[in-house]
Amino acid sequence: MLKHPTAHFEAASTLAVVVSSNEPLLFLSDDQKVIAASASFCRAFEIDPATIPGKRLSELGNGEWAMPKLASLLKATASGSAHIEAYEIDLKRPNQKTRQLVVNARTLDDGDIDHIRLLLAVTDVTDVRAEARLKDDLVRDKAILLQEVQHRVANSLQIIASVLMQSARRVQSEEARGHLHNAHHRVMSIAALQKQLSTSKGGDVELRAYFTQLCQSLGASMIADPDRLSIEVTADNSAVEADVSVSLGLIVTELVINALKHAFPGERTGTIVIDYQSSGNDWTLSVTDNGIGMSAGSDAPKAGLGTGIVEALAKNLRGEILLSNAGPGTAITISHQEGDRLRTDLSTAA
Amino acid sequence: MNNGKAVVLVVEDSPVIRMGAVDLVMSAGYEALEAGDADEAIRILESRNDVDLVFTDVQMPGTMDGIKLSHYIRDRWPPVRLIVASGATILEESSLPGGSRFFSKPYDDHTIIDAMAHLLSSDCDWTAAKQATLIR
């Protein structure tokens, strides 16, 4: 007499949970027959739900699920010897692009140890992966482009600097040479900022590092004897927006050039100190030297391009320029006080 | 060395920058040679044996960039001193042969002249760098 195995029925609730699963899900018997498939699975992989009952996994659709590796992994999972976690497979269908899938399989743990059944969750990661790759590519492209731009800017500045220095070496007039050197210093001041910007993460520029670089560059070309003259930077930890830093850098450049040229005649030794302190929106920039001090009256040197640049930039930053005697030497302070402006506004209003 | 003058080879693809660098070298009292890329630089180094220092750009067309060139020179002509300049701000100094100097562009002419004078002076212990390379 033949022994018929008793038919096994799944709980309706289990089937309902599988069918309504948001993630594509297959419910399989231990011999890989499909007991139920989620609507999301049928939709995602274009399988007519009506064709599913009684089919084996390998017979779904046009047989594209007949993947030996998947079958053996499921077999191992059913026997309890393995666990499929985030296993990656490629789904190949005729006339369609290969889809990258991530599968997870486990046995259903409902207390029925006589009937082993499997839950196979299938996620199509093709689009997500492509998007991630695209994003990575874009980030990399952007970094390369930025590097390329910085490289071009540096090269362009080098061309300008080279031409200015060549002209300076050729001209006969001492005065013309001075002007060309000043032009070169101004270009190098912008270049120092460019270097600072290319190493900073955001768009802000750390002033102490920037001024230090600026002064090294100015010192290298203007100070013949570093034991006689030196430049110090004592700025606080302030960081400012790039375009504000351009102005501050150019002001420092002009004031330092001026001090190096006029404050230490002969063999006079000395130091120039650049300081920047800020508190809230208020800030003070100062360039102080311990040289011979400013000559006044008819002895005062005629205001040159440098003075014009400093005045225009300070005004643009809404800063006030103050010249004072540093005893010995000269201190030039440019300060921006929001409180002061408020008071001035109020007094004009009254 | 040629007639008591140190010989400096400038390797730079941009004509205007190369002109400026040659001018800088001559103003410092050295003899200047010029090459537009690494291959030309190597041909010059092969054709004469009096080059004391090579001042090279990094990004250049041709088979080698300035970094590869500097390693090639250190291997083949160990006594030649090296100065490398690049538009890239951050360059791993460790990616250059020992004893060579790096400057980012735009460089200051005085700084380069000082570096050349230092590398070419007898008190500069470049032989240590050379020995270190040979030991490696």
Automatic annotation (TrEMBL), chain A:
InterPro entries: HATPase_C_sf (IPR036890), HATPase_dom (IPR003594), PAS-like_dom_sf (IPR035965), PAS_4 (IPR013656), Sig_transdc_His_kin_sub2_dim/P (IPR011495)
Statement: the UniProt record of this protein carries the keyword Nucleotide-binding: yes
Organism superkingdom: Bacteria
Molecular function, one GO term: protein histidine kinase activity
All residue ranges annotated as the Histidine kinase/HSP90-like ATPase domain in the record: 243-340
PANTHER family (alphabetical): ETHYLENE RESPONSE SENSOR PROTEIN (PTHR41523:SF8), TWO-COMPONENT SYSTEM SENSOR PROTEIN (PTHR41523)
Record-given protein name: histidine kinase
Species whose genome carries this gene: Mesorhizobium alhagi CCNWXJ12-2
TrEMBL record, chain B:
Gene Ontology biological process terms, A to Z: phosphorelay signal transduction system
One Pfam family, short name: Response_reg
Modified residues (4-aspartylphosphate): 57
Superkingdom to which the source organism belongs: Bacteria
Keywords: Phosphoprotein, Transcription, Transcription regulation
Keyword Transmembrane: no
Record's keyword annotation contains Transcription regulation: yes
Family matches, as Gene3D superfamilies: 3.40.50.2300
InterPro entries in the record: Bact_response_regulator, CheY-like_superfamily, Sig_transdc_resp-reg_receiver
Location of the Response regulatory domain: 7-120
SUPFAM superfamilies on file: CheY-like
PANTHER family reported in the protein's UniProt record: RESPONSE REGULATORY DOMAIN-CONTAINING PROTEIN (PTHR44591:SF3), STRESS RESPONSE REGULATOR PROTEIN 1 (PTHR44591)
Protein name: Response regulator receiver domain-containing protein
Organism: Mesorhizobium alhagi CCNWXJ12-2
Lineage, top ranks: Bacteria, Pseudomonadati, Pseudomonadota, Alphaproteobacteria, Hyphomicrobiales
